[in-house]
Every structure is written in structure tokens, then in C-alpha cells.
Amino acid sequence: MSAEPGVPAGRFTRFMGIDWSGAAVERPPGLAVAEAEAGRGPPHLIRQDRGWSREDVLARLRMAAETGEALLIGIDFSPALPFADRGAYFPGEAWSPPDARSLWALVDAICRGDAHLAATALPRHAAAHFRRQEGRTVLTGDAFEQPSGRLRVVEAETRRRRLGNATSGFNLIGAAQVGRASLTGMRLLHRLAGRVPIWPFDPVPPQGPLIVEVYSAIAAVAAGMVPGRTKLRDATALDGALAALGSAPAAPLPRYDDHSTDAMLIAAWLRRVHTSAALWRPALLDDTLARTEGWTFGLD
């Protein structure tokens, strides 16, 4: 993979943090969007009257592409499933796609009957590979790697460095799981159809918007929080984390929930760190990973 030279100051003028959700409803309560302008001003939540839907986010990102906004977007989901450990997303399946873009197309095609960009059909189609739940019954596929599921290279590295408890995209059960969010996120990426580049599957464009995968725990640790205790649930905690990132304190929120504060933290953190050349040139990221698994921005 050719080395990214880093992003010069001034390349991006706005920074968006999205705390994503895989809930199979129109307007997931866990979906939050925040933005920060260049400089030191506070991040702010972007509110929708009825709450955000995944289709709303898709429309917002398409608009950024159309207008050429200098917007860096950090979304908290895994854009691909593990590939490097077994040389395939779904080992033994003739239909297993060869790269991330093909995976996004597969997920979107199989889940085309799922409303609101949900993704319930794919885990049924590939049931052997997932741990999932039907009603009250936990179903563990024969190919699900015990005890907790396969990991991407970047997820294993995040765990090794003790920056967070990254979980497998094949595990769809539990409060900490990110599998459902990741599958719905793949539908989003496919629907964007290359209009907004996503790093490292795409190089950093000279202008316009760019998406990066983020992990809110990495942003929280960068803001001085202790790994494993990275949730911001009041004004004091949020403003302390923002101050550590060089940001002014946020306007008071009507309610301090993990989703809103995570989105605000991501936006402020991206603004702080995005010019670091090392973050665009991770030591373990090669061409194959950039094509199949991607990488979490913030892990050098």
C-alpha cells in the first residue's frame, strides 16, 4: 500500500462524529450525529425532529459529496468482516466475496427486503458463521469461532494494546456487540456508491468529504480517560474530555447519554488528531488489508 502523506492543516474544515446503530427500527435511539468546526469551538449535536434514521445519514453524506464539503466523517462501526485470518470472510462458501466492496454489495443485495437499511437477512443466509438470536433462542453457527468470534487484524491489535474490548463482527449478541451496526453500515457504504471515499479502501482525496472508521474508546483514551471506563455521562466528564482535546466546553445537553457524547467526542478528537501523518500510515496496514478489512483511524 502506498503511504499516505498525512493530511495538511486546513484540508478539512468540518468534522463529523457519528455514533451508529444497527437496531432494526426506522429511527434507532442510539444513532447520534455531531459536528465540530475547525478551530477550538465546541462540538454540537445535530438534531432531527424525530431522531436520525440511517436513510437520513445517507442523504446527509450524499449532500456532502454533491456540495464538495471539506468534511471528515468518523463513523463508529466496522466496515468489513474478518478476512486475513482465514483468507475469506465466509470460509468454505463459494459465494464468499473477495474484497470489502463486494462484501458491501452482497450484504445490501441479501438484505434488500430489510426496511430502514437494517440487516437481518444476511446473518440468516450465512447462519453457520454467526452467533445470533431468534426470539429468546441463542443460535451459534457451526463455523462460529469459539469463544467470542473471529477478529479483524485491527481489532486484535486494539485488544493487544488494551485500548478497548473490540468485538467480532460475527457476534450479534450482547450489549457490547457491534455486528448488527457493522452490517447496516456496510449497506450505507454500498449505497454511497463511491460518492464519498472511505479510507483506507480509498486514498485521501485532495478535496471533498472523506469517511474513516473510528472507535470511540480510542478517542476517549486520547482525551485522558482510562481504558474500559470511557463513557461520558455528565457535563463535567464531557467538558473535561473536550478540554483535553483542545476544545471549548459544549453547550448543556438536555440529556447526557453515551451516544450523544460519543458523537461529540469523535468530532472533537478528529479535529485534534487528523493532521498526524502516523495515523494515515499504520505499520500493519498493507494493500491486502486496505482492500479486505480496512483499518480503524487512530491506531498507528
Q: Layout of SSEs?
A:
Layout: E1 14-19, E2 32-37, E3 44-45, H1 54-67, E4 71-75, H2 100-110, H3 121-125, E5 131-134, E6 137-140, H4 153-160, H5 179-192, E7 198-199, E8 210-213, H6 216-222, H7 235-244, H8 258-273, H9 287-292
Parallel strand pairs: 1-4, 4-8, 7-8
Antiparallel strand pairs: 1-2, 2-3, 5-6
Helix pairs in contact: 2-5, 6-8
Organism: Sphingomonas jatrophae
Protein name: DUF429 domain-containing protein
For the structure shown, list the relevant keywords.
300 residues; alpha/beta; 6-stranded mixed beta sheet; two-stranded antiparallel sheet; 30% helix; DUF429 domain-containing protein
Please explain how this structure is put together.
By secondary structure, this protein is α/β, with parallel strands linked by helices. It has 2 domains: 14-78 and 193-280, 2-Layer Sandwich (Nucleotidyltransferase, domain 5), CATH 3.30.420; 100-190, no CATH class. Helix content is 30%, strand content 11%. It is built from 9 helices and 8 strands. The chain has a 6-stranded mixed sheet. A hairpin with a 2-residue loop joins strand 5 (131-134) and strand 6. It is globular, with a radius of gyration of 18 Å. The mean pLDDT is 94.
